[in-house]
Each structure stands twice: as structure tokens, then as C-alpha cells.
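Sync notes, pocket subgroup
Present: LS, DG
LS reminded everyone that the earlier model was apo-only. Rerun requested with pyridoxal-5'-phosphate included. Inputs:
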Amino acid sequence: MRTIFDYEKRSGTGGILPKLDVPVRRMEELLPQELIRHNEPRVPNLSEPEVVRHYTALSKLNYGIDDGLYPLGSCTMKYNPKMNEDVARLPGFASVHPAADPELVQGSLAVVHEMSQLLCGIAGMADVTLQPAAGAHGEVTGMFLLKRYFEARGEMQRTRILLPDSAHGTNPASAATAGFSVTEIASGPDGLVDLNVLSGELDDTVAGVMLTVPNTLGIFEENIVKITAMVHAAGGLCYFDGANLNAFLGHARPGDMGADVFHFNLHKTMSSPHGGGGPGSGPVAVSKTLVPFLPVPRVKVDGERYYLDWEQPQSIGSMHSFYGNFGVFLKAYAYILTLGDEGLREVGENAVLNANYLQERLKKTYKLPYDTLCKHEFVLTGKGVGDGISTLDIAKRLIDYGFHPPTIYFPLIVHEALMIEPTETESRETLDRFAEAMEKIASEAKENPELLHDAPHTAPTRRLDQTRAARHPIMTYPFEE
Ligand SMILES: *Cc1c(COP(=O)(O)O)cnc(C)c1O
């Protein structure tokens, strides 16, 4: 593709810039020497339409949820109503300065307060902090809460977190970041936590267990109430990773199952676009025991006035500047109020229905290692589809059929994993088209494997060196010197 920089050597000016209105001498007094530019910046000379066309062409190379199905397992890439973006953009909210006096932003504080109450109701928990900026940030916040709780009780020997091998990858990282050591609990052949293995690990060095609910196989822990009772009896606490809340939204509450900490991924469950590093939000809800340790400031209400409460001597401190990513709360708030109790229940039902519909159809063509009713997602394996065919080949070929590939090679307990989460916002017709593409690919794998090995054929780029792209990204145009 031609890039904007191909025009670099063209002479002339591309746009009309306002005159420099900062006295140059003054600038030199203000800026440190090493920051002052001595040469003209190297920018291409382009006209406005050329710039617009360049960026429009780039935007068309992207694939997003507004283009089609995005069945990325463990990510809940669902369609998010545009109305919620309008709500987040209302000037009365969007123009508020985060350092404004609380007296002047009562409406915004009311949203934070009401949103907290709505989330507590949905989770069945005592209180919540909206500060964390993402799911993993919520996890580490939750782990700090556990840490502070055991410090307050003088149980410093509780340094271990038990984690099933079906947990999300961020869980062990968060536990370790907070200074815990991680003990892995092997799943049984049914994909569930093995209660005997769990019981063998429970002692007074255990701070708690971290469960992804439902787990990354898309399976609900049937023994969840037993598990939390066992951990509590051993003096530990229970962390639930709630990024998969879509699966039981409006049907069950983590608080009723014995959770002490539960994080939401508002940018998955509650209508905020995500991916590309856009702002997220990972509120952390807690049981009564952990409320005194929540981050400050807390937004509280005294009669009619909302205020910030910093007076929490046992708090772990602040986890985010100001109150967190406010724009994301607004979208989630609009989403919850629009759908209401009944609508949220239907989200849960349709997420599960869509996943099971696809699972039942695709398990005839692809192997399903854990064959059971799934929740919001399921994990196939690409193994056995064709000689020398890998899951990566299948994923790349899906691009040729116009679909974003599912999550691959995760979770690790399934070899050559294909982790599919259709979400509740897809129609039956879309699911059928996706299933047809997957079935065609399985036939091609046997009849014409080269088609898969060389895929994608239609995308602007072929196979990328993913390791180099992640480790050594080139973020700026490399000018020739
Ligand atoms: C996405 C996800 C996370 C991490 O959330 P981020 O917002 O990406 O940090 C954690 N656990 C599960 C199960 C997830 O799906």
C-alpha cells in the first residue's frame, strides 16, 4: 500500500497552519535546551483530501464488531448500542474537569453512587469500587484487598493463592503481582475443579482461591458453593473473576455463591467497546468483611449531597486517579437502565443459547474435548481436522471467509484450542454463516490443505511475525537518513 510518507519529498505545503504566536525568545526561556527543535520537522507535504483519504483507507483495513461477527473467546466482543456512546458524550458529563469541586459535579457523583448500587445488586455483594481500569487491574485490586485483610488479622503466613488450571491467564499474574505465590489446581476430566485436589491444598498458608466463573472452558463450576464453603472453613477468601458474567447475568449472583471479591469487566458485559487498548473498567465488588479495605476516595451520600470520603484508615489506598474511567461507567449505566432486570436476564439467556447452538453444530465437524452443556463460550480443538493442519491455519482461513478468528491456543489445557464466544448480539443467520465457513474449512483441510497453509489470501497482509510485532513494534515511520 502507498503510504503518506511516499509524498515526503514532494515540495510545497499541504495545509494552512496558524502563525506561530509564541515569542521565540520566550519559548527558549521556558523549554529546556534539549527539547528545543533546531531543524524543521519532517512531515510529508499533502493536501487535506490526501490526508483524509489516507486515513480512510487505513480505517477500511480494520475489522471490528461493526463489520461482522467477532467470536473471540474470553473477550465478549458484542455489539454495543451507539446510544450509550451518545450518553457518554453529553457535554454535562464529558466536559467535567476531574478536579472540579464535588459541590459542582453532584450529577456525576450521583452516577458513580447509583452505578455502584446497581452493580452491588447484580452481584449480590455488599459494596463496590469503580476505580480499576480493567479486569486485570480489578484482579490486582482484589488481591491487595486480601493481603490487607490478612495483615489486619495478623495472619501473615497466608501467602498462597490456589488457582485452577482453567483460570484466565491474568489471574496468576495478578496474584503474583500482589506478592502471593500461586498453586495450580488441576481440573478433573470434566473440566471442573477436582475437590480432592483442592482439599489437599487447603491449610493455614492459603489466602484464598481465584476462580474464573464460568471457567475458560465455558463450564460452570457445579460445586461452586461447596468450593467456597471449603475455602472459608480453612480461613481463606474466595475471589471470582467475573469477566464472563454474560453467562449468568440476571440468573445467579456471585455473592449468593460465597464470593468475597468479584470483578466486573464493564467493557465486556456492560456495553463498552474494547480492544485496541481503549478505556475499560473493572469494578471490584466485595463482601462485608472487605468493605473497610476498599480504595479511597469513596463516593458517599449524606442526605442529598454526594461527597468524597477519604477517611478510611484501613483502605489499600487509591488504585486510579480520581474515580476511574467515568465515560465507561456512563455507558454501562445507560445499558443497565435501558435493559432493566428482564433485559439483563435475556442477555444471559441468549449468550448461553447462542454458544450452545454453535457448539452442537460444530462438534459434528471439530472435536470438543469437554463435551457438556456450555455457558457463554466453548473450546474446540483443531487437532484431527486434517494432516499437518494447525489451529492457526484454520483461524487464518476464516479471515478469507470474512470472519474474525476466534481465540486460539488458549486455554492451555486444550491442545490446539479454538475458543469461540459468539455473544448474545448475533442472529441465528450469522451463526449459521459462521458454522458453514468452519465446515467448509474442515473439508478444505482434507481436500486442499495448501489453501489453509497459505491463508489468508484476501487480507491486506499475510501471516505476520507475531513475536516480532509484539516485542519490536515499529510505531513511527522510519525515515531514510
Ligand atoms: C478479559 C478477561 C480478563 C482480563 O480483563 P482485562 O480487562 O483485559 O484486563 C480476566 N479474566 C477473564 C476471564 C477475561 O475474560
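DG: Residues 74-75, 134-136, 168, 170, 212, 241, 243-244, 265, 280, 282 surround pyridoxal-5'-phosphate (CB under 6 Å).
LS: Residues 326-362 form the longest helix (37 residues).
Action: DG to write up.
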